Structures are given as structure tokens and as C-alpha cells.
Amino acid sequence: MDTEQQQPAATAEPPSRGGRWDTVQPWLTLAARLGLAGVLGFAAATKFPPALSVQSVEAYQLFSPALAEFIGYTLPLFEIALALLLLVGLATRYVGAVSGLLMIVFIAGITSAWARGLNIDCGCFGTGGTVAPGETAYGADIARDIGFLVLAAIITVWPRSPFALDRLFGLHR
């Protein structure tokens, strides 16, 4: 008999990140989901009647009148759809990514208006259009949208959260 006893081979289990993150992450994502859903829902609601949204899009002077009208009418509906999907937690990762891309588009539009010297309200929450010089808040608008982009990034990277329909389909347990 061999005098040396063999040690069992170590299993190749991935190391755990730690209990605290595993406990906090789903709730952080839930907060991000609900926060971004609330923002998108509120933004959509303030764009009704759609003529207000059309006016906001036209103020950026980036699109033909027909395209600005199309965007103005469809943007609130798109925001409502994203808000509802985030609220119920369906296709969470994808909706988070699309919401993040939407925030990037908003940031680019505001930056474009600022760079071209336009004096407009962003129209993010209600009426937009021309404002008096000095009444623009481009820096604050961009900072706010970067904050919303961070929420979207959290949702995209860590989509697992409680009270999500994704769980019913076996996603992000």
C-alpha cells in the first residue's frame, strides 16, 4: 500500500463574486428598470398631443419636415413601449440596450444643437422649440441623459431582477 494518500482533485468551479453583490445586484437592476421606465413613460406622456413632439423634433433642424413629423408622432409611442417592457421586465437586456442607444441619440442631438448655436429647449419632457438666448440648458440636459444612459447600461449588463417576466421564461434567474 502506498504511504502517500492522494488528495482529491480540485473541482474547476468558478469563484463566487461574493454574497453581497449577488444579493444587491438584482435589486439595483430593479431600481434601474423602474427608474428608466418611469422616465421614459413620463417623457412620452408630456409629448402629447403629438404636435408638441413634432415641434420639438423640428427645432433641432436635422430632418426634413416630413421625417420630423414622423419622428415626432412615433417617438412617444416608442418611449411608451420601452417603458412598459422595462416595467414588466420582458426582454430586459435588449430593451435596456435599445434604451441606451436612444439616450445616445438624444445626447448627440442636444450636442449638435449646442454646437450649431441653436437656442432651443431639448423637448425631452414636453414642449420644445426656440427659447431666448441664455435659457438653454444643454450641459444639464446632457448630464441628465448620461445618467439615464448609466441606468440603461446597468440593465443591459446585469439584466437579472425580481418581478420580471424574463424569469417566467427562464432568463436571468
Write up this protein:
- With 173 residues, the chain is mainly α.
- Helices cover 61% and strands 2% of the residues.
- It has a two-stranded antiparallel sheet with strand order 1-2.
- It has one domain.
- It is elongated, with a radius of gyration of 22 Å.
- It is built from 5 helices and 2 strands.
Write down the secondary-structure element order.
Answer: HHHHEEH
Q: Tell me the total number of β-strands.
A: 2
State the share of residues found in helices, binned by percent.
55-70%
Biggest sheet: strand arrangement: 1-2
Query: How many strands, which pairing sense, and closed or not: the largest β-sheet?
Result: 2 strands, antiparallel
Strand content: under 5%
> DSSP helix count?
5
Shape: elongated
How would you classify the helix and strand content by structural class? Answer: mainly alpha
| Count of spatially separate domains | 1
Poorly predicted regions are: none
pLDDT average, as an integer?
90
| Straight-line distance between termini | 49 Å
Question: Radius of gyration, rounded?
Answer: 22 Å
